[in-house]
Amino acid sequence: MLKHKGSQVIKTERLILRPFRLDDAYKMHHNWAKDPEVTRYLTWQAHKNINETARILGAWLAAYTADNYYHWAIEHKGEPIGGISLADISDRDGNAKIGYCLGRAYWNKGFMSEALEAVLDFLFSRVSFKKLSAFHDIENPASGRVLEKAGMKQEGILRQEKLRSSGEFADLRLLAILQDEWLDKKKQKR
User: Fold this and answer.
1) CA 29 to centroid of chain Cα atoms
2) Higher-pLDDT residue of 95, 189
3) Three-class HEC string of the chain
4) Which of 23, 61, 93, 134 is at a distance of 20 to 30 A from 54, taking alpha carbons?
């Protein structure tokens, strides 16, 4: 049985994961949402203007009233640099899908790995999820490395599963990790 907690603040060595705020709109737009290179392998288009970003943020803020809504801003040195969230939550089965996005200026610095591991720990240890999974576009192997580093294992390839923002269909690689695997990994680190 899941023990929903909502998007509580999580602190790591370099990051603060926290609920988004409306005043994040400018930095979100500037740091990642307007960048077509960031959205290249995603299903949504780069935002055309700050108003689009603010409108989307408004919808997210309204969802924070639910205790089963998990969507964090990834903050570094006081500035939001990306986001990480859950989708397709199944209370019955104790599983969900993780998605994330990070500004290009922050790629290849270990920020997403740090954020993902903190979120996995929170969701497995505090909320009691049994399984968490994520997809990545097979043409974006860097995203796959983030998932593998967190201990996720490949479960399969979904051919032409999603329409990219570019209009092309993408094959997606599905990876997942079980609660027991995560807890074993934590023990080994000690």
Assistant:
1) 17
2) 95
3) CCCCCCCCCEECCCEEEEECCHHHHHHHHHHHHCCCCCCCCCCCCCCCCHHHHHHHHHHHHHHCCCCCCCEEEEEECCEEEEEEEEEEEECCCCEEEEEEEECHHHCCCCHHHHHHHHHHHHHHHCCCCCEEEEEEECCCHHHHHHHHHCCCEEEEEEEEEEECCCCCEEEEEEEEEEHHHHHHHHHHHC
4) 134
- Class of the CATH domain delimited by 10-189: alpha beta
Residue ranges per structural domain of the chain = 10-189
Which residue's structure tokens are 């603040």? 9
The structure's pTM equals 0.95
Asked if residue 7 has pLDDT above 90, the reply is: yes
pLDDT at position 6, please? Answer: 96
**Cβ-contact 99, 88 below 8 angstroms:** no
